[in-house]
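Lecture 7, part 2: worked example. A protein chain together with beta-D-glucopyranose.
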Amino acid sequence: MWKITENSFDPASQNHKETIFTIGNGYLSTRGALEEGYPGESRASFVHGVFDDTPVVFTELANAPDWMALSILLNGERFSLARGTILDFQRELDLRSGLLTRRVRWQSPGGHVATLLFERFASLADEHLLALRCQVIPEFDGEIEIRAALNGNMDNEGLTHWLHVSQRRENWETVCLQTRTRKSGIALALAMRLRGFDSPQPDYWDVENVPTLRQVFPARRGETVTVTKFVGIATSRDSDDPLALALERAARPQSWDAALEAQKQAWEREWERCEVSIEGDDEAQIAIRFSLFQLLIAAPRHDNRVNIGAKTLSGFGYRGHAFWDTEIFMLPVFTYTAPQIARNLLDYRYLTLPAAREKASAAGYEGAWFAWESAATGDEVTPTWVPDFHDKKKLARVWTGDLALHISADVAYAAWQYWRATGDDTWFAERGAELVLDTAKFFAARAEWQPERGCYAYSDVIGPDEYHDHNNNNAYTNRLAKWNLQTGLAILDWLKNNQPGKAIELARSLDLNAERLSKWQDVAEKICMRVEPDGLIEQFDGFFALKDIKLADYEPRTRSMHEIFGVEAANEYQVLKQPDVLMMQYLLHNEYSDEQIRTNYDYYTPRTDHTYGSSLGPSIQAIVACLMGDVEEAYEHFIRAARADLRDVRGNAGDGIHAASAGGTWQAVVFGFGGLRIHADGSWETHPHLPQHWQSLTFRFYLHGQQHIVRLENR
Ligand code: BGC
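Predicted complex, written out as structure tokens:
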């Protein structure tokens, strides 16, 4: 159960499949577009950190030059699935090794038949190396012509980010291309080295921005023609001389087999850290491996200046911007299975603290308020307006960049969780503590005393449930702010006892005087929260007074409640895009009794748009259902999350992987069904709730540098 397969070519679903068959190595990803190109494709490679300016959404990952371009002509007829007859088609992504394979038997309009086998991978052993091999087995005698190129003419759905710099033939088997982004000025170099083109030497076609090597091979029935393309890639973010780096990496591999062997070994090491196996449920098994694979190929191994976008590097959706999706949904996977990756991602937040301080200060507050959508610099890049659901010619205002405070607490929470799981005191003292303290400072500054209620309020906010904006005292925001303030105070004590020098330094640089700290204490103690006598928590002030809703009355439906009601009207109903109070109870579940969680679960679950609301919701819903012991219900939510991309349940998987759902799927398996609980003292235990049809569940995680492998069986 390691392979994602496809047995026929369906042009209608090709964009979805391009997302599914994305390959990558934590440095770049390439969507599963076909080598030879196809009308309507969404062909793209994205390199971490290579952003460029764009209207409306400020900045986006620039679609990098195409390294795969390969044309094959059979007796002068160009191979294309848009023509001729597809006699056989199989595609498979081997999650174990990251190798994508396609085998096509094709008949040209002129009647020439050949089997073509394409293989490609982005090397995990050398992140600056990409490899592609094509084998053609003709069923005719004649000629096979192969043209291999680097194509610098790529754009982001019509907008081009690249300025051609230079190109040349480096030696008889290698050509290179240099280009740079228009506004951000990032230089990118690619070097393509071909193997299999030995005698006679290939022709070099110096096509502007598309350096091409071309060779004609004699075709003999049944005899395989093999061409291997190694591409080195580097940018000015990696080196002062990206071209030299790209050339060096393209020249390194001895052979396809050697490069693939290194790739397999690198992946084996990855899976040793995080493999999950589920016996008795093939769909869950493949989905969890797919989710992990998608996160792993997007995870920066050697760069702490980048974050993972909500759609990873696998599509144009959200333009490469990162959200709380990283900290709350993806980071736990890395924190517990690949702490070094988690640290890189947290470093990104540390390094973008100046922008977070700037955002807070521009709004009139001190401390750090992180961008809701964050890219290269950490500046707020949430678009202010997007096309309206109902009338794409109209614009709808997006409020998250102005109103979502909770992102600051989410970042602090993730830093603290990493510290607790790894025991990495050095990093925490150097960087993590400042994340928690400066966000606490922001929450203390942003709180407003409400004399009539005798509590501190956060008014005019938006919580995780984005069907409601401009509300006061969102429970998730308030409770997480309280946690952030309390944790800030506790951390300061820890620093004083363990790293007194650092405690003094931070107290000075953040101006943490006694008066300020006592305000933190006061805000934390008196934060507004409406709780009914039975423990039911109101999602925000006035939520219970909104019109109630029976979602069943709107079934069957294929649209979200947001689309059905419209952006404004959704605010008037008790309908949630995703769990909000429950999300908070998951993150802080030691603070709540099972009974209180149950009360809230029973109230909010039927009012949540599980099917078409946020893709972030189902996994969290599954975990809380497990906490309640409702395993069947948990499974229903879990499988919804697990299918998000593989089955394209929301119809938008073509825009890229739902990365938060992938992270949530892992959390649902490990913390939900596996019931893993980590205690403050570093001990752990499991409270498993395995679905009935699962024979066993095995997962791995690290605590304080030590790996634990847990096998749970259903008896
Ligand atoms: C969700 C947010 C999420 C964003 C990016 C939105 O639709 O409501 O919670 O952060 O998508 O995935």
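The first helix runs from residue 14 to 20. Residues 42 and 157 are 8 Å apart (CA to CA). Keep this in mind for problem set question 3.
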